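Q: I have two molecules that I believe assemble together. Could you output structure tokens for the complex as a whole instead of separate predictions?
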Amino acid sequence: MLALKLAFRNLLGAGLRTWLNVSVLSFAFVLIIFYNGMIDGWNRQGQRDTREWETGNGQFWLPNYDRYDPYTISESHFPLSAKVRLLVKKGQLTPVLIRQANLFPQGRMQNVILKGIDPQQKILKLPTATLAQSKDIYSAIIGKRMAKTTKLKVGDKVLIRWRDKNGTFDAREIHISSIFNCDVPSVDNGQIYLPLKVLQDMTMLKDEATLLVAGKDYQGGNLDKWQFKSNKFLLADLEALIKAKKGGAVVLEGLLLMIALLAIFDTQVLSIFKRQKEIGTYIALGMTRWQVVGIFTVEGGAHSILAALLGALYGIPLFIYLNTTGINFGAPDVGITMAQIIYPYYGLQLIITTILIVVISATIVSYLPAKRISKMNPADALKGKLQ
Amino acid sequence: MGNSSLIKIERLIKRFPVGKGYFTALNGINLNIEAGEFTGIVGPSGSGKTTLLNIIGSLDTPSEGTTTVLDRSISDLSSKQAAQLRNNHIGFIFQTYNLFPLYSVFENIEFALLLQHKTAAQRRKAVMRSLEWVGLTDKIKSKPAMLSGGECQRVAIARSMVKRPEIILADEPTANLDSENSHHILQTMKKLNEELKVTFLFATHDEKVMKYLNRIITLKDGKVTDDTAVLQTQNV
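A: Yes, here they are, computed for all two components at once.
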């Protein structure tokens, strides 16, 4: 308590030098929290969007299905049992049939994935209801990215070619009934959504599906040969990507923190040399050398407490503003789930962790030069002799 | 000099390493200082005055011999015990005042009491009493930079007195002061010595100080060459 009182008294008395260090450190505080808040906000939005648009409350896959291996798609289909059909009827599951195909927009050929989905489903956010509303049986919905790359608009007709279950090619025109706006690229890029029944008929895979998407009401349990994949598994790639982004941010934050800590270290070294007489006087007045080390360590560490207060002064209004308006990234198309406007998420854990990291590192860099005091001869310190 | 000595020094030797050899700053000192003395250690620069004062104040340790202060052997004290001895029983006054520049007069004097964990009310009372002794109650909020040299030294005296120590060690307390301020300071210290029975031990080569002393110990080349009790009538 005494060390804290004396340290703050000395720190505030040192004036401009203190405030320069505190300013740089407070900037490090705010930037660390801002950047991590943005990444956390992106992560939360990305996970929520992916769940809402693609993975639901988990998926059931066939044993040989691999979403990253197109060769597994043609063999990955299985009839829906009565038990599954009952769960579909209850709205706890929705089956998706996945097939490869070729699209021929404006005379070009493009590989696409056809996804058959129940137009009545409510589990995913996909606007499948428009498939049911269309008068054309072969109506399809696509995402805005797909529409952009294929130059397709609502009402356009486009030729597709596919193979049925026997490997026989077939082709016909489909009608684009709706274009949806989704931030999850894997739901959008190269994907065409057709009514499940239509795709089953087209491929002669009556009552079959490639995967089953579970809704939030699904009670769990195994289904025939279907294997359950939790969201932890399904979102692992997104999490890994976010983690990598955070790793990159650590370099920037580390650099900024290092500059601030270097300034504190420098100030401490200078302070100990300049204040040798003061150190000697502290000891003469009855302090132990380690108590003086404590004062100087707390003094350096107290920079971080002042920095937290200063950072809060301008950081809190900034964070509240960003939380309200969000950060507009234009229309990103970076191949990963990313919304146009990201709302940063400033959790208590992030703030406490950042404060702890900065306070502990500032205290450590303050202690390193301060421990020299423990080796000082007080009689020499009183004379101001360099030691 | 009986067994009741406040400070007892026997065959004290202090050496400092210089290059590959040693410089002997104190060479076989034997001294006894009784409670209530107003004693000066005098001698030219480099005679070992400050070194002797530092050892008595437990800021340094003897190379050989024994120094006993208030029945505690300086050589045997741990760092913490030495700090406790200084904090509770010894006051220091320095040539350059050594006030904390960022602290007010009140805070400078209060500092020693903070280390003794006194309450705020106790600290305030003791600081005010000290300031009354040195006649600086009107400068309570001033910073050292706003005070004259004489005033700074009076603050330093108040700081050393505030914890009511048995011994005050004053190292060239008048060296930076003019004649008038020196006499003022010395009169203040003499008054405190007589009224509060505090033992004062000076290291000085200032003629003005010598006029106030009851006993003059002369050091030369680290040895006591003279130890004279001075009659009160000789004092100013």
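A: One point stands out. DSSP finds 13 helices and 13 strands in chain A.
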